[in-house]
Amino acid sequence: MQHPAVALTNKRQSRIAPAAGLLQAMRAGTFAMLLCLLAMLVFGAHSVHAADGDDGDFELTLQRTDTLIAIGKRLLIDPNRWPDLQKRNNIADPLRLVPGSILVIPKALLRVDPAEVVVRSVVGPVSRADGTPLSANERLAEGAGVKTADNGYVTLQLVDGSTLRLQPRSDLKVERARRVPGSQVTDTQIEMTSGKAEVQVKPAARRASRFEIRTGFASAAVRGTEFRVTAEARGTRSEVVEGTIAFAGIPPGTSQPSAADVVAVSEGFGSFVDDTRKPIPPVQLLPAPFLPKPQVMQLAPNFRLRIPPIAGAARYRVTLATDASMQQVRREQYFDQSDISLANVEPGNYVLQVRAIDKFGLEGRDARVPLTMVAGKPAPAAPGQ
Q1: Helix residue spans in the chain (DSSP H)
Q2: Does 33 map to a domain?
Q3: Lowest CB count within 10 Å: 208, 236, 273, 293, which one?
Q4: Quick check: 297 pLDDT over 50?
Q5: Percent of the chain with pLDDT over 70
Q6: Which CATH number characterizes residue 96's domain?
Q7: Are residues 92 and 236 in the same domain?
Q8: What integer is the mean pLDDT of 327-350?
């Protein structure tokens, strides 16, 4: 069964693209135009960035010392084609450019160098596409695949320094990993055929890099946000932790999002696309569960905790990690009730994370607290207790 398709694009909440402009771009027939419009409205003219889409152009904010000849030497495949930039941008004098203005560089002219994705951490069974075990500090070039089995987790550092945390039973491929020399422009495309990923875009790279993750027929083109995406046989879900995305279903037999069904999903909301290819209206994510503060301390090996139930929660996801970034996951389990019980937890210091999950399968906001499991056995119960 094919994954229902969605398309997501990132926007900053401070400047939301007008609905009319968004729909006009989508009706124009290309996802690249939609993404380019969002990029221009959101990021303005004070950055170096790549317009999204395979046919999109690159935009460069000109500096005081820039000339077309120098830019050609730095950024073009053939430096002698700088007159093409002059013609494309209607520039009268190639030596007198206006600082702060935008220079459009056709993607076909732009020089890009191959780059690599770095494996930052591996927990449990993780392998390359051919079954070779994957280890931390390895590098993944274009075409490399990664698979996680049960209890397998891997954290990848993307070309722009952003991170992708792949969860158990997931499968992805590094479709594209490139860097524009002499600039902060990077281009990364990840294809995830199944599973779950949590992506955090590096703030310094927000205006300079393009990152796209595809799940089956779904596409998420992102700048400057933190979000989660899950690809399953019955649908595609996304939860926005930071920023705002445009979320649309892609009708069967097409490669373009439907202008009639686009919804804006803001920070703290999520949406879901099923076989109808129509996203549900944004749903507010469930709040973070209440956890004891400032920390939890219990005797190993059994961990038990009863938290106040969250209204609307169908399940709870409980994760134990040994680091604050939740990369070194040691245990993970789902519960139908708010009574949490984990057996055979080794003594040590952990971070406990709990999320409530609603009826759509959307995971809510994180609750985290330090957890210490102390070696020893609990004292015998007093008579009569």
Answers
A1: 19-27, 31-43, 68-75, 82-88
A2: yes
A3: 293
A4: yes
A5: 77
A6: 3.10.350.10
A7: no
A8: 95
Q: Which two tokens stand for residue 224?
A: 């400057």
Q: Please state the domain count of the chain.
A: 3
Q: What residues make up the domain containing 204?
A: 113-284
Q: Residue 364 has what pLDDT?
A: 97
pLDDT at residue number 139: 97
CA distances to 66, 83, 103 from 91, rounded to whole Å, are 13, 9, 10
Neighbours of 134 (CB within 10 A): 19
Q: Are 381 and 373 in contact (CB under 8 A)?
A: no
383 in a structural domain? no
Check whether residue 129 and residue 253 sit in a common domain: yes
Res 260 pLDDT > 70: yes
pLDDT bracket for residue 51 (50, 70, 90): very low
Location of structure tokens 């102390």: 374
384 part of a folded domain: no
CATH of the domain at 268: 2.60.120.1440
* CA–CA–CA angle 141, 221, 79 (5° rounding): 60
pLDDT of residue 220: 67
